[in-house]
Q: What sequence folds into this?
């Protein structure tokens, strides 16, 4: 459609509408509305929520809770950071939330081990003893958490302090707890039914 046709089409459709509106205003005609005193019926739809929708709702609630906590806490090391990642040899994404102090410590441990691994390689090849020492410096997450017990206790105290001072945080914390309980109950019910069959 060329420009002339477009302009003609717009003029043909808009001009009669505006003319009708002007004549209605000039005539002073006010459309009559009937008031309806009949009560409005409520329609309630009941159905089973899927585990996926429950997990999604839980994730949104957790994200909101952690965002509020990060805004209210006293130190950046207590910030909770969440991410979705695929671990080695799997395509299944895992959603995890960890405090900043844990992520920093894990990064430091891995960086130190990587430096040692690089040092074990030379122009002549690599030294297996140095390489093994470097690999031994890698720590599983459970060992890193064990080293950070004091920081985790501080994080817990910070959460209790914020929950006692901020009603909005406390309500969101309760909501996340309820959503987790509902999700776990639905998950257990679904997978236990399949096992019994």
A:
């Amino acid at each position: 459609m060329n420009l002339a046709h477009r302009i003609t089409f717009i003029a043909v459709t808009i001009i009669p509408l505006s003319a009708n509106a002007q004549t209605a205003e000039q005539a002073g005609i006010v459309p009559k509305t009937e008031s309806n005193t009949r009560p409005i019926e409520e329609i309630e739809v009941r159905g089973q929520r899927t585990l996926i929708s429950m997990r999604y709702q839980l994730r949104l609630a957790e994200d909101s809770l952690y965002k509020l906590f990060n805004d209210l806490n006293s130190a950046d090391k207590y910030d909770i950071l969440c991410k979705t990642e695929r671990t080695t040899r799997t395509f299944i994404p895992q959603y995890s939330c960890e405090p900043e102090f844990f992520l920093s410590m894990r990064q430091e441990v891995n960086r130190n081990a990587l430096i040692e691994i690089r040092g074990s390689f030379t122009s002549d090849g690599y030294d297996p003893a140095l390489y093994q020492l470097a690999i031994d410096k890698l720590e599983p997450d459970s060992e890193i958490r064990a080293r950070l017990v004091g920081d985790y206790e501080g994080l817990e105290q910070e959460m209790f302090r914020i929950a006692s001072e901020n009603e909005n945080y406390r309500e969101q914390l309760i909501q996340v707890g309820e959503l987790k309980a509902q999700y776990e109950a639905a998950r257990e019910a679904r997978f236990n039914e399949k096992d019994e069959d």
Notes: Residues 51-196 form one domain. The chain has seven helices and four strands. The chain has one domain: 51-196. Residues 167-196 form the longest helix (30 residues).
